[in-house]
Amino acid sequence: MARPKEFDIDVALDAAVEVFREHGFAGTSAQMLTAAMRIGKQSLYDTFGGKWQLYCAALEKYGAGETRAHIEKLQGSPTALEGLEQMLERVVLEARRPCLGVGSINEFSDHEDALIKVRRPAGRSLRAALLRTIREAKQAGDLAADLDPKHAVAFVLANVAGIRIAARGGADPDELRALARLAIKALK
């Protein structure tokens, strides 16, 4: 009979997310993961199948959490424009921490089908929420009348990545807030 797991899988996966956020896939060793996750190497393989499968699971968990947090900001404000501003402010506040989503795109581009399948659901949900928010803000007269909402979604997501990369490159909080304000201004 198999021994029961002696660790909390969610806690271990959260630890793996943090290691992958900081070091990427290639820069992360199994030893780094097992130390952070506080599990043995055999438990890593028995539970997750290996480093690649663990990376995919970590990316999926990270993407779902980030998407949920972004959507909460989009939907938790009195107006759609304020929701968009709050989502970008959240990005600014979190930007010093590495983004596993941006990191996976930088490291693997669109060359790994497994990662595309992992990123697709979170991306689809966030894009849909952004599209609704942008359409609502446009209808309220808060954004430019000739703004193409689908293009605006792509623009906002590119700015989210840009803010995160700028932060990792050393931009200070005032610069990051300015980038967020400029992104909103460009939509008006």
Explain what you see.
It is a single chain. The chain has 188 residues and is mainly α. The chain has a domain at 59-187: Orthogonal Bundle (Tetracycline Repressor, domain 2), CATH 1.10.357. It contains 9 helices and no strands. It has helices at 9-23, 30-37, 41-48, 51-75, 80-94, 100-108, 113-139, 149-168, 173-187. The longest helix is centred in the last third of the chain and has 27 residues, at 113-139. The chain is elongated and about 60 Å long. The chain starts with 8 loop residues before the first helix and ends with a helix.
CATH architecture of the domain at 59-187: Orthogonal Bundle
Structural class label: mainly alpha
Instruction: Return the string of H and E elements.
Output: HHHHHHHHH
CATH third-level topology of the domain at 59-187: Tetracycline Repressor, domain 2
Unreliable stretches covering 5 or more consecutive residues: none
Mean residue pLDDT: 93
Report the helical percentage: over 70%
- Largest sheet, if any? none
The radius of gyration is 19 Å
Provide a count of the helices: 9
CATH top level assignment of the domain at 59-187: Mainly Alpha
- The dominant shape is elongated
What is the total tally of β strands?
Answer: 0
